[in-house]
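User: Please predict the structure of the protein below. I'd like the answer in structure-token form so I can feed it into my own downstream comparison script.

Assistant: Understood. Taking the following sequence of 116 residues as input:
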Amino acid sequence: QVQLVESGGGLVQPGGSLRLSCAASGIRFSIYHMGWYRQAPGKERECVALITSIVTTNYADSVKCRFTISRDNAKNTVYLQRSNLNPEDTAVYYCKSSRPYGNNYWGRGTQVTVSA
């Protein structure tokens, strides 16, 4: 019954911006770390941005991430934003939720394409 649904992907011109949303259901959203990851063709999946839960802010993976991330616990939704996009940002972006002693959950991904 746990579900993460990403939205907001699409074709963006270089220098443009994106705003992705990830709506979670089936979990107590506020106690999970939330993160955005991306995977381009032929490359490994990498962390883009993380935000920790209200329970703890200690999460080592946060040092590997970029972009601007925010969350709305009332809406069970986490957001990813970035301006000045470039073609290297093209990838499938995934939403992930996690807890220190719990399961990890992944969304199905949303495609972001940066091209003139």
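That's the full token string. Strands lie at 3-7, 10-12, 18-25, 33-39, 46-51, 68-72, 77-82, 91-98, 105-106, 110-114.
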